[in-house]
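Chapter review: from sequence to fold.
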Amino acid sequence: MADKKKDESVEVKSSGKLKWIILILIVLLLLAAGGGAAYYFLIYQSDDQAEEAGDGSEGAAAQRAEAIEQAPLIYHQLEGFTVNITAPGPARFLRVKMTVVTRDEAVVAALDKHTPMIRNDLLSLLASQEFATVNTPEGKDALREALKQSLISILTKAGEPAGVDEVLFTDFVMQ
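The token string follows.
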């Protein structure tokens, strides 16, 4: 009988220790799951968002381009240009005032910043025009496109945003 009590007390002690071990394992598993969840939501997802943004290059550029496409038009008036037309014809002078159409404020700032370079290149382009060509609607359209491409080229060379949508003539006189 004494042996039975001894066996029961040993079983009670070992089952008490077993309950504590199981309880500790459950608590450790819960802590590990909570830590894993915290890592996933705080660290892992922020890394995914940084990769989606391209660490400030591709993703940010795409977001900026999308925002610019939805922005309202900005009209920026350039100073007037008066040039001698060197090609033979009835007109000897060409006076042009133009407005640059963009959706990006940074382009307007870049146009103001690089005005001397822009004026130099556009004066050369305008002076090389022929009266017979520029006197037609198609010639004016071609000149507007050439001016637009010239502006884009100048801004790109300067490392500035070059989002020029259109070049509009506000004054066009040949004498």
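Two observations follow directly from the output. The longest strand covers residues 164-174. The chain has two domains: 2-66, 72-174.
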